[in-house]
Design goal:
Mean pLDDT: 93
Order of helices and strands: HHHHH
Low-confidence stretches: none
Strand content: under 5%
Shape: elongated
Structural class: mainly alpha
Helix content: 55-70%
CATH class: Mainly Alpha
Length: 90
């Protein structure tokens, strides 16, 4: 387990932190996945935004977990990143 995971596990013992973490987990998972796919495709935020006909600020908000994207935006994003969109309930 790396230092970040150890620190996160320690923080998750705090009920207030855990509640906030659980409320924003989906947005952070989306952000992490988008960042990874964008980098793997060798794209900057601006280049990805251009492919989506949107502004770089929209990509920045998404990657900063400051927004909850629509399904249609995620579908367009998957196409722009040469991947597929999968949504799961666990």
């Amino acid at each position: 387990m790396d230092d970040f995971e150890k620190h996160k596990q320690k923080l998750l013992k705090n009920p207030e932190f855990k509640k906030l973490y659980d409320e924003t987990r989906v947005e952070f998972e989306i952000a992490k996945t988008v960042i990874r796919a964008r980098i793997e495709n060798g794209l900057t935020q601006k280049q990805l935004a251009d492919k989506l006909h949107t502004g770089q600020s929209a990509i920045s908000r998404l990657e900063g977990a400051n927004t909850t994207p629509s399904i249609s935006f995620l579908k367009r994003l998957a196409t722009a990143l040469n991947t597929t969109l999968q949504i799961q309930f666990k």
